[in-house]
Amino acid sequence: MAEFILYEVDGAVATITINRPKALNALNSQVLDELDATLDAIDLDTVRCVILTGAGEKSFVAGADIGEMSTLTKAEGEAFGKKGNDVFRKLETLPVPVIAAVNGFALGGGCEISMSCDIRICSENAVFGQPEVGLGITPGFGGTQRLARLVSPGMAKQLIYTARNIKAEEAYRIGLVNAVYPVEELLPAAKKMAAGIAAQAPIAVRNCKKAINDGLQVNIDEAIVIEEKLFGDCFETEDQKAGMGNFLAPKDQKVKVVDFKNC
């Protein structure tokens, strides 16, 4: 049983909570290993959307554990970076969408893990930043790569080079988060969004995620081919037949919510 990760499933929505509040949910090797195992254990036949959050209202994830990192050799530092990157990449490429509900501090590894999610929403007291250069290191869990892709290279360089933290409003302004909520409304908003995603045709949603993620890594001509294949892959599925069948049905026979079967 995991010591620092809570995992709950409500219908088709799973919630992963990083539960190390005394350390502001900082990521050490054990937390990363437990998160890795939790991602592997998700039942993708039933779960259609995942919410990632941190325990308490002070911190989403305050960063990687500096106490653990402070004595690492070059080789150990590179290995620790690889451990974090491997877990975050697994999160990023999870077939179903992941919503980061960012409550409080999202610094260093916390900002980086939020950027590995499909969608970020945050509380009004959220604080984002990549403070690593002030500690004599670079971001090590994908921060230099994902931040530049999400906001802009110039803005990412400014934030990373200055080690400056930004509040929720600025994170929203630069496009790092999709929305800002009062603290008490954050998790309900995440659950509502997740439920809205889970109600859609799951094969189509998964294919959309793959098309967007894979397409961003190649040129537009190759990206369109990726989309064509994933578009075609949706046809002959029960979900496609149900969705289009309901659209074409007479008005008095339409249903408000299609019962998609994930097949």
Question: How would you portray this structure in words?
Answer:
This protein is of the alpha/beta class. Helices cover 46% and strands 16% of the residues. It has 11 helices and 10 strands. The protein has helices spanning 29-41, 66-69, 74-92, 109-115, 143-150, 153-162, 168-173, 183-198, 202-215, 220-233, 238-248; strands at 5-10, 13-18, 49-54, 59-61, 98-102, 105-107, 119-123, 127-129, 166-167, 179-181. Strands 1-2-3-5-7-10 form a 6-stranded mixed β-sheet, with helices on both faces. Strands 4-6-8-9 form a 4-stranded mixed β-sheet. Strand 2 (13-18), helix 1 and strand 3 (49-54) form a beta-alpha-beta unit. Helix 3 (74-92) packs parallel to helix 4. The longest helix has 19 residues, at 74-92. The radius of gyration is 19 Å and the shape is globular. The relative contact order is 0.11.
Quick structural summary:
This protein has 263 residues and is an alpha/beta fold.
